Amino acid sequence: MKTDTMQEQVDVETSPPTGLQVVWREFKKDKLAMFALFGTILGIASILFAAYFLIDEKETMTIKIIERFTEPGMNGYVLGADEAGRDILGQLVIGAKNSILIAFTITIITSIIGIFLGIVMGYYGGWIDNALMRIIDFFMTLPTLMIIIVFVSIVPEYGVWELILIISLFQWVGTARLVRSKALSEGRRDYINASKTMGTRDGVIMFKGLLPNLSSILIVEVTLSFAGNVGIETGLSFLGFGLPPSTPSLGTLVSYATNPQILSGRWWVWLPAALLILMLMLGINYVGQALRRSADAQQRLG
Amino acid sequence: MWKIIVRRVLVMIPQLFVLSLIVFIMAKQMPGDPFTGLITPETDPNRIEELRQLSGFYDPWYVQYYNWMTNAFQGDFGQSYTYKVAVSNLIGERAFNTFWLAFVSTILVYVIAIPLGVLAGRYQERIMDKTIVLYSFISYAIPTFVLGLIFLFVFGYQLQWFPTSGTVSIHAERGTFEYVWSKFHHLLLPAITYAVLGTTGIIQYLRTEIIDAKMQDYVKTARSKGIPMNKVYSRHIFRNSLLPIAAFLGFTITGLLGGSIFIETIFGFPGMGQLFVSSIGSRDYSVITALVLLYGFLALLGGLLSDIIMSIVDPRIRID
Question: To the nearest whole percent, how much of chain A has pLDDT over 70?
């Protein structure tokens, strides 16, 4: 035990603080970021918990026309009911769960593709880099939102997975571009060259040498792209090109507001979902910004 | 200068070509053809078949692509299925509305962003700066449709400061001052919504630019000559920092196009974005393909514009 603490002290004195310590210091310094971090984690956890254990999806989605537009707080409807008499609170929880899980899946898929391609491009450079960069530049100029919508409308047998794949098809580009630029400068460092001279295989250098050293930037990128994906999915669902009607999303709930009577007179149908999207986006993005600051020594507060 | 513009335009050509190819392939995947718009209950199926033969519906795809492109260059995108008019006329009408919305939005973006960016840079790390940075963070994080709906709810329905849909009041007579005012009044709220969201990049750029400039020698020189700080900001720093901001114009336009789909849907504003959403709903494929192609082209043009302005204001790019 004693030697352990000794060891730790020596570490602190001789080596710079590790990535995680720096991040923690940054959050300790910025109280709002700490609040955003715990608020977002707690919020997402309780939404997932409620969606799986407290809310009966079948019961919530059953149409009860008599209870149509029940106002909040009446007949046991905490947040009121929509035009089919379905509980808003229940739909909110299920919608949020769907939106979060879909955004999460898209983030995982696009991050894997983006990080892999980015590192390969940055490490090898040359014609691989040039060719892929052309493709990425082209993707960046596409009217992405429109093309996603067109894809959604022409894909036969449209479902949740099709939506995830269509969005992923266009979302890996940003990550790949960012990772490539970081890998390009990191790949010219001495330790990479030393590895090469020692005859380490390229694959090992890239994913055991380079990748861990990019981790702080990757965490930032993944966090921010998660927020972006929540925005895209809810936006598409809002326009009616997102989740199929059987799977409610936060965007579907907000889309009821395209009916002016609901927008002005029955605010409880759409406003909670809109505010929940807002809170999620602010929370995740704020955490992302704090992480970004801690990844850059010049911007650190702590 | 000209060399870089020419080179940049040359890069655009293959991009445009690939874009048109993608749009063409997507169009081929969609059910229906340019004549679906002509079909009425009285149309003879044989006549349609004949038209298809004549227009080369059964030609190999590259011949079809060539014909489609040559027509598109002449502004002929076929007939709209729902509106029964030529697609180019339909889009032209809507493009006018979108253009005005984009124009007012762009002006508002700069009107809001420039003073905020300058103030944030000048009062760095003070309350004013922190508030502006927080605002620019919120405007970055908030999705377009959420802010649009909240604005429409608060300013359109609750406070009733703005009309809630359309481009002009039905009571206004064409040609009068009232008519112009009504048009402006209708596009003000959508434009404000867009402007609030579109300022982030410019504010952050201007802020860092001014913070950097404060340390520069020319500012110290100006100060030691005895020029008051206010004048140093308005004459020296501001002018130097302002030029690169012009380059954001292209990105602002590109961003506007993407946002127009949400904003026009929410505010019931009959522009190209709303036309796109309603065309998808009614499966009006000739309109959809034309709009995707047009938006892609405008986005490319926006990037080109930014690069050209950048090469004018920043000599380092020209040398490259």
Answer: 84
pLDDT number for residue A118: 93
What is the third-level CATH fold of B88-280? MetI-like fold (1.10.3720)
Nearest CA-CA distance, residue A182 and chain B, Å: 21
**Confidence check on the interface: ipTM exceeds 0.95, yes or no:** no
Q: Domain extents for chain A?
A: 21-300
The rounded distance, in Å, linking the Cα atoms of A288 and A292 is 6
Candidates B195, B212, B197; CA nearest to B122 is B212
A146/B295 Cβ within 8 A? yes
- Which amino acid makes up residue A182? K
Task: Please give the DSSP secondary-structure letter assigned to residue B12.
Answer: H
Say if the Cβ atoms of A281 and B303 lie within 8 Å: no
pLDDT for A165-212, tens place per residue? 999 999 999 899 999 988 888 888 888 888 888 888 888 888 888 888
Residue A225 pLDDT class (50, 70, 90 cuts): very high
Three-state DSSP class for residue B44: coil
A240 and B15 in contact by Cβ < 8 A?
no
Q: Does A133 touch chain B (CB under 8 A)?
A: no
Q: How far apart are CA A159 and CA A274, in angstroms?
A: 24
Q: Kindly report the pTM of this predicted structure.
A: 0.83
What is the spatial distance between Cα A31 and Cα B94, in angstroms, rounded to a whole number? 48
Yes or no, beta carbons of B146 and A254 under 8 Å apart: yes
**B-chain residues within 8 Å CB-CB of A267?**
153
A267, burial (CB in 10 Å: exposed 0-12, middle 13-18, buried 19+): middle
Residue B274 pLDDT > 70: yes
For testing contact with chain B, the best of A30, A141, A149, A282 (most B CBs within 10 A): A141
Distance from CA of B300 to the nearest CA of A (A): 6
Task: Establish if B111 touches chain A: CB-CB under 8 angstroms.
Answer: no
> Which tens digit of pLDDT belongs to each residue from B133-163?
889 888 888 988 899 888 888 888 878 788 7
Tell whether B265 lies on the interface with A, counting CB pairs under 8 A. Answer: yes
CA dihedral sign of residues B183, B189, B194, B198: positive
Q: Quick one: DSSP state of residue A52?
A: I
What the block records as the tokens of A52 is 């799986």
For chain A, the maximum distance between any two Cα atoms, rounded to a whole number of angstroms, is 76
Q: What are the chain A neighbours of B281 within 8 Å (beta carbons)?
A: 240
Statement: residue A221 has pLDDT above 80: yes
pLDDT attached to residue B3: 77
List the single residue in A with minimal CA-CA distance to B14: A138
Tens of pLDDT along A40-71?
A: 999 999 888 888 887 777 666 676 666 666 66
Two structure tokens written together for B73? 């260059």
pLDDT tens digits, A248-278: 888 888 888 877 777 777 778 788 888 999 9
Two structure tokens written together for B303: 């990037």
**Which residues numbered 127-156 in B keep a CB inside 8 Å of some CB on A?**
137-138, 140-146, 149-150, 152-153
Q: Which two tokens stand for residue A284?
A: 């995740």
Task: Give, to the nearest 10 degrees, the angle between helix B177-198 and helix B87-122.
Answer: 60
The CATH number fitting domain A21-300, selected from 2.60.40.3080, 1.20.1560.10, 1.10.3720.10, 1.10.10.10 = 1.10.3720.10
CB contact B8 to A (< 8 Å): no
Can you read off the two tokens belonging to residue B235? 């004459």
